[in-house]
# Entry
Amino acid sequence: MKDKRWSSLFWLLLIPCQLAADVFLVYIGSRIDLMLFSNPEANGHGIPIFSAIFFLIAAFMTLIVLIMALVMAIRGLHRRQK
# Structure
């Protein structure tokens, strides 16, 4: 049976997927803040804290995925050369 190995550069596809997830997270955070600000009777805060929290989560996840994708791609290319 053939050993099917994915391309080493396949790991780099995680980067655009993560960027799409970042857009989604920032959108969710801004929607939560918009819901809080649109209702004058809602108990909330005067600053868009959820947008900031979701942005920080997205940035942290992007950093982790970027490092992981680069390490896995370099590791795969190194193995392929051997």
Q: What stands out?
A: The mean pLDDT is 86. The first helix runs from residue 14 to 38. Helices lie at 14-38, 49-81. DSSP finds two helices and no strands in the chain.
